[in-house]
Protein 1
Amino acid sequence: MKLNTLKPAEGSTHSRRRIGRGPGSGLGGTSTRGHKGAKARSGYKRKIGFEGGQMPLQRRVPKSGFKNINHKEYFVVNLSTLQKLAEEKNLTKIGIAELVSAGFTNGKELVKVLGNGELKAKLEVEANAFSKTADEAIKAVGGNTTII
């Protein structure tokens, strides 16, 4: 062991400068806070969006649009998809459980059936919502629709 190879123990030294510990430290006096103003004083908390008294950006920019809190987001299934599913799995009744097992939805989403495509099979369909054309097309083939 030599004096020139000695090092302090791991974690025993502090990398940051200690401020506000007198003029001898070189960081006494204002303690890196500068002179006067809100930031120099104790208890200062930065307000989100505060721009030094200037009108903040979120108040300067014009507002537009509307977010409807009652809007429902549906997972959409078309009649062509139902027809394909009925042919592949030989089904007469299609509900949420069948759509989950086929990998279309996770079961937590609301399902709406739309009238895109052609339906030939007589099906009993359960869903959260139906478009008017889908409802008519399912009933025209002799099927039945049930809203859950």
Protein 2
Amino acid sequence: MIFLQLFYTFFIIGLFGFGGGYGMLSLIQTETVVNHHWLSTAEFTNIVAISQMTPGPIGINSATYCGYTAVHNAGMGETMAVLGSATATFALVLPSLILMILISKMFLKYMNTPAVQAIFGGLRPTVVGLLAAATLLLCNSENFSTPDINPWQFFISLFLFLATFIGTMWLKINPIRMICYAAVAGLVLLY
């Protein structure tokens, strides 16, 4: 019975949880702690901390850990707890999967229409602008230092930024390789 409740609860959260993983956290807490009493507040706080530390989206990580903990707290054992985590994770992702399949079918059907082409014509520069804004937001004193505080770190950071930009833009070096090169250079020059 708990598996059906987990599936239904996390499916609804996945369906109505707008705003990404952090937006879902309050829904997950309300459902798992307040409504169903699957977890205590302390357990949920620990789950959020672990979800932030592990790779992947925080909403999906939280669902995985909540499903595991809910079934484990129900006294069903480790194997069933793993099934609980899989159930909660799948249920959270399922609405997005269904919507993306429907949108993909619609896109394939209408992708050559003038209206869809016009929409994507407007989206392309917007995406470039958002990426540029994110880049500029990262160009701050925490990442580059300043010439007044630490000139060595500032100039090395600036050099690594320009070398990476030139390497990926004009020399067509694989970005993953550039990240590795920059990591080694930062370790050697800034440590």
Protein 3
Amino acid sequence: MTEPAHPRGQRYGFEAFDCAPALRLEAHERVAKLQIDALNARLDRIEELIERLERRLWLAVYGVAAVILAQAFQSVIQATP
């Protein structure tokens, strides 16, 4: 006696199995996810470094502005008797 066919072409009583192309696709998806996660981690570290560099740059700008203002103030103090 023959078994009835399953709607997707599989027969009852047999387990579905993964074929090689599907396994390769799953492996590729896992590798791609790992690469994207690593890339995101690197981007986060780069963003942190850029923020620290920006803080240092603004500190330098404020320092230069303070020196210029101090020199201007000193020249005004020396010019007035």
Protein 4
Amino acid sequence: MSQLRKIRYRLFAWRPFRKLTPSEEPIDVVIPIISKDLHILPLCLEGVRHCVEHPIKQIYIVAPKQDDIISFCQQYDLCFVDEKSLFGLSPKDLKLKIRFADGREADRSGWLFQQLVKLSGKIGTCRHFLCIDADHVLIRPHVFLTAEGKTVFYMSYEQHQPYYDNIQRLIPGLPLASLSYVDHKMLFDKEQLRNLHKTLEQQHGSSSWTDVIIDSYDRSYIAGFSEFELYGNFVKEKIHRPWLQKRLPYKRLADYPTLQRKWSRTRWSLTFPDYMRQNKS
């Protein structure tokens, strides 16, 4: 990340913002997971139920059909969606392998599949749906759709050039924001997604927007595509807000009221990445 980008984000994050009036339109919530996410998902759900400033019609869990996941959904009153039902294939069918110079391989099929799930617009009955990562915990109120109908995007300081190179291959000339849309959560509009699908298919002469994205992936990078960067930059009418997020190791895990009390004065959200799970003590 460049020093200029850090400065730009800090100036953006700490300036005063006008209060947003949330839309009263109901939204759905969509969370793609696998079994290892179940231990942290209850905190994510508490954050959604306490801090999303919109009526929530239903919360959908998109996952492989496994007994532990189905039982969890029943326990927490969530709607289970079998991931295979969305595209008629499973993540492993993507066969997305990244090969490193030393001969090692990394399978990124599941990672890309969950991004295609978010972009599909196939889940739920509401026009707008919030996608949030299972390890992301909201601790301050969040507006995602204003009363005027504008989507609110929470911007981060992330910077990964392959994401932007990919966008220029997908939609050449699309203007790119000076900060990042990668912030672990995003509200999607099914009408905007239909426009995005149509744009991708027309741009590349394909009958399938999913194939366009899969084919555009640069296999020399372990992270070569971002659904958040693509969609956020594609939408024209929008409002930006800083994410003010804190990444924490698992040794800092606590119950939701404790996390909210400790961090909500300075942060709007917390993330407990799986790669930091080993830091429990």
